[in-house]
Hints:
Structural class of chain B: mainly alpha
Helix content of chain A: 55-70%
Low-confidence stretches of chain B: 10-36
Radius of gyration of chain A: 23 Å
Number of helices of chain B: 23
CATH superfamily of the domain at 29-222 and 234-266 in chain A: Cytochrome Bc1 Complex, Chain C
Largest sheet of chain A: 2 strands, antiparallel
Largest interface: A-B, 24 and 21 residues
Low-confidence stretches of chain A: none
Helix content of chain B: 55-70%
Mean pLDDT of chain B: 88
Largest sheet of chain B: none
Radius of gyration of chain B: 37 Å
Structural class of chain A: mainly alpha
Number of domains of chain B: 4
CATH class of the domain at 29-222 and 234-266 in chain A: Mainly Alpha
Shape of chain A: globular
Distance between the termini of chain B: 113 Å
Oligomer: heterodimer
Number of helices of chain A: 14
Mean pLDDT of chain A: 92
Strand content of chain A: under 5%
Order of helices and strands of chain A: HHEHHHHHHHHEHHEEHH
Strand order of the largest sheet of chain A: 1-2
Amino acid sequence: MFAALLHWLDERFDWDDLTAPLRHKTVPSHRLSYWYFLGGITLFLFVIQVLTGILLLLYYRPGANEAFESVQYIMTRVRFGWLVRSIHSWSANLMIFTAFAHMFSVLFLKAYRKPRELTWVTGVILLFLVMGFGFSGYLLPWNTLAFFATKVGTEITGQVPVVGKPMMIFLRGGEEVTGATLTRFFGFHVAVLPGLVTVLLLLHVLLVQRLGMSVPPKLEVQWTANPSAKREMRFLPNFLLRELMAWYVALGVLGALAAVFPWNLGVKADPFVSAPAGIKPEWYFLFMFQTLKLIPSKVWFIDGEVLGVLAFGLVGLLWILLPFFESDQPSHMKRWITGLSVFALAYVLGMSVYGYLAK
Amino acid sequence: MAILRNKLRPFSAALVGLAGFVVIAVCLVYGQSSGQTKNSCLDCHSALPDPLGVTQEKFSQDIHAQKGLTCASCHGGDPTSDDPDKAMSKKAGWRGKIDRKQIPELCGSCHSDPAYIRQFNPSLRTDQLGQYRTSVHGKRFAAGDTKVAVCTDCHSVHDLRAPGDLRSTVNPVNVANTCARCHADADYMKGYSIPTDQFAKYSASVHHQALAVRGDLSAPTCSTCHGNHGAAPPGIDKVQNVCSNCHAFQAQMYEKSTHKKAFDAASLPGCVVCHGNHGIAHPTDAYLGTGPEAVCMRCHTPGDKCDQARAGLQSSLSQLDEAIRSSDQVLRVAESSGMEVSEARLGQDQAQDSLTKARVTIHSFRTDLVDQDIQAGLKIAATNLQAGKDAMVERNYRRLGLGISIVAIGIVLAGLRLYIKKIES
């Protein structure tokens, strides 16, 4: 049956020729090969996001007077609505986690080097967009925490000199966080960001397919010196089956989290009450939030928060351009980038933990 | 010179404007300084020890000073003169230290004048002196007892603040302490034949708890029940009128009850019989019991018809209280398991409202009316309990589903592993 279908396709579209690159594609096999799965797991979680997001759209109603009630309805009345929403929320968090882990694995395995600079650039932009997904999606249930987190988050955007205030008003749809902000964030979350991510994701995957998997530099030197030591596995089916196993594990973790810890709905947002004490953003923004809290209110003559926002903007830009600072030849810059990577990971982890524990 | 004049011509209009500005500014500064009233009294009195000492800092806190009044407004004299003899001369109308006997009348000379007071605060009452004359303080004062409170004893002097100011001695949160300065002083109150434990009792009361601890300014302090300027005991037959200002529903129930008639006949002071006066504690259902807190059995005989009704009421309240607690417990477990039970939680508030209403209805002393509220509450609590139980069933169903899914995923993973092994061997 399956062979007949393949024959049917082959007759019409030259299927064999189309799939030849995949059949001939190989993946390096070594003790660090497991890190290759992180990108695939992130992609799998993105697909879960899209599917559960579409299901949620069937019942979700954006609007200050309806959003909370519609999510409550999904959680209590819609059959398996609780599961769909919990999986959507947990999957979002796991996706951001695996995207971060994927980025640092690429960094430490030096997979961003020539000729994969653009793969890195698209990957880092994708990570930023995924964080944008998190920020915009967080407001959609219109609960107290989401409301005030959005208020604080958009206020920080407003600190950017010159363009900050217009940007804040653009994001909020006015001076304050209101129902207009909710519909706007809904638009970003289900239309603008998915469009951008889909294009960049296709480009990213295409580049990965075109350039193949990177091999860590030391191993590359060994394999070049001794080609017989080189180990590879076929992408189809060997690597893909292993990837499938990773996806199943991710699915199991996701299901367990959703069933044992269903995502909390919280209390409906009330713009007229004061913000809850010790309000914090989602964990993936915590390192930035804590840094901004620690910067003095005035650094020389510059406002501390403005300085922090500008510094994060500059670091983000340099992070995107990181591969272009490393040349082909051995140089101090290589060691410098490795050191920077270790520092960045320690900083993000340390500040996140500090932010979580801080009152 | 002509060349210079020509060059300055374009600026001539600006120069004229600048000169005008300088003239106006000088006039304004002069006008401002000359408009301020000189107060030479404080030059000396700020250096004098108590009781004659009044510093500029202290007097500037006084509401009268803030409204533009000076020492001379009460004490007379000429504060514009630097010569003490002229400033404090009879000719200048100096009255010296105000005699205690003159204080109410002196304060009243302004505060009973609506036309005068209106210019400072149109909403400020002007009947304080009239009220004072009807108070126990005022009557005793008129009879020659100068130990009783006059205006300055409660409001302070020279640093008198508006009642809304938290530092004011007559701010609601400070009133009890102000009254206690005399009324809790057993030596000072000797000879008046009234107790001095009111403040100690009030400090332990539910009203003090609400006012001073929770900061609820609607909670009563001494003046809420006794009045302020017209302070007097409410009178036995008027107690429920005082309490009913806040506890309106309880008062309505009580007015129609059999207890009202019985208490009136026995000249018992209504609410106070069961709840006390200054030391009112938070009422509990144990008031209806037979233990140490019980109030019914102070008058009623065990086993009589009223005792049976009392037992029924207490049992009904306990039943609803217990039902709410049970629902709460199940809902809490469901909530901590991540189940969405916010609607049932909201329903719990309604059940609690029914219990509160039943406790209020107790003041009607009618079992049929109380039972209506109890039954309504029990129905809501039962619905909430069922919602909690349903949530727990749903939780277990989810966990069973998770277990089956995990086993299925495990089987697929094992199958994939075996298949990979097979194709790679």
